[in-house]
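The record is kept unedited without comment:

——
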Amino acid sequence: MSVAFYSILRSPPHVIHVEDGENGGRIVQVAIARGFDENRIVSLVCELAEAVVDDKIHWEFTFSFDVFAIDDSVEQFRTQDRQTANAYIPMEIRGKIMGVVCECLKALTNDVKPTLVYWITKDRDLPEKGMKKYHMLRQVLQTIGYSPLRNGTDPHGRYCSIMHKNPR
């Protein structure tokens, strides 16, 4: 049985709480949709986690979507796949999601205060729309005092960036 979802995303400013994540990382979860069966919740999940890149500690930024049932009747899952996520995100809020992702990125970097921030795309050969989202993250970091240190592709052809916190 297919369950349709409706938006529970509130207007900005969004309520963003940074919490402890796995392995010393930090996490933000923002509920964005609920199933019409009133049992399933969809949340945007943004994380900063320590990662070693080129023998240096970086904080890797990722975002994904969690879908879970309140009564545990459906197995919870997390996805970064946009095709999978789109089945659970109401059409009317899809254009607002990256704004929330950007707010979460700001909150996480303000909390952790990392010197180096790293992120990578899930897919290679991104369409123009995907590249705009990738560049939005870079612009957010630049507005809060980070500069590009390295941009390029990994051995799998995925786009990756490293941003460095500017000294004050």
Summary: The radius of gyration is 16 Å. The mean pLDDT is 91.
